[in-house]
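FAQ: What does a ligand-bound record look like?

Like this one, built around zinc ion:
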Amino acid sequence: MGHRFIPHLSADELAARQLEGLKWTVNHAFENSPAYTRKLRDMGLRPGDVKSLDDLSRLPFTSVEDLREGYPLPLLAVPEEQVVRIHGSSGTTGKRKVMAYTQKDVDTWKHMMARCFEIAGCTPLDRAQICVGYGLWTAGAGFQLGCEHFGAMALPVGPGMLDIQVQILTDLGATVLCSTASMALLMAEEVEKRGLQDRLKLKRGIFGAEPHTPKMRERFEALLGLEDSFDIVGMTELYGPGTGLECPAHDGVHYWADLYILEILDPETLRPVAPGEIGEMVVTSLCKEASPLIRYRTRDLTRLVEGECSCGCSMPRHDKILGRSDDMIIVRGVNVYPGQVAEVLGRFPELSSEYQIVLTRVEGKDYMAVNVERGAKDLSGNDPALAAAVSQALHKALLVSAKVGVLDPGELPRTFAKTRRVLDERQ
Ligand code: ADP
Ligand code: ZN
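The answer part, i.e. the structure of the complex:
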């Protein structure tokens, strides 16, 4: 495979780069970041103690709490004159995380994002409409950097502004759509409403930032006339979007193992799960200067995909992100993940991809309601029977009762960013 941005590395070459990066990172963090100096000293560790990749398992973990303690510039490991930028997370779960970047960090990120455009099969003749948040959020900046570095044409629209979106889509003939899964759905429905499908030149979608279901994806792919679409992963803590991308083989997400080490650990025991089992993604950066990450617990859940990919890319793969441990809700003592609800709803072709879970408490008892939407073409005649069938299927899968409400197509909120699927009104 002739990749320009993605190196082809043998397992040995990759391991050598990882070891070199790990040694550099631990040394750099120990010498320059008071937070890490303390952490490493507490474990009786000195930088020279890292002699092989196996020594990773002896290093302390870094958590969201560490980021909060160090707010606003957590883990900082360079003098301020080397910091050229900060970004903040969306704050989906709690306080916004702010991270600092040196110029080298920005360049690494740019390279990482260019790899994503490459894996998605883009060329310098592509025009990428970037419909994600600019500013504090990493998404806009990341896509912009990567697209330009890759050499394609960036159409930096940002999120929302549907009139301008469709204007740029049609007038400039965007060929690649970059957005959250929610925004892709919103744009697709808007294009359908305005009957503009024939005027689009879109070929590919690069979408991410939140979990999606096959149903959601099929719908925006069909309405936008996409030939293919690719799930992009990333987080503010690790530069931003572009830490990995699904490839045309659609069998997992290739991640850049020469830039960070990924461990999949059991969140309870903090030991590696068996190969192919689901666990928490724990990441260690290999060349991040301003805010290095040592065994950072992302709280995102996935599993490794074994073996070589048929697409020819030598970078390893993980499965799509199946959810975050913070997403878990407890209803009457039972653990429920929104993804499980989505999975059950996916079995009903009469329903759209959208849903909302509402939790309430009455006289000390929890109640769960799940609001769903009829698919575009289905009529309301069958609502009570449909609600009963969905409720029964949810009970069977989750062991929790849910009151199911069937709404009209488009009645549930659509968003430009990440959809909030759970409304917890119990406090
Ligand atoms: P937060 O949402 O925690 O405020 P970010 O804005 O940095 O922080 O978003 C990163 C998080 O978004 C990841 O940790 C992950 O939970 C989620 N995420 C990013 N990309 C995807 C994706 N393709 N699929 C599912 N979840 C994703
Ligand atoms: Zn592949």
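Follow-up question: can I read anything off the structure? Yes, for example: The pocket of zinc ion (ligand 2) is lined by residues 247, 249, 254, 309, 311, 313 (CB under 6 Å).
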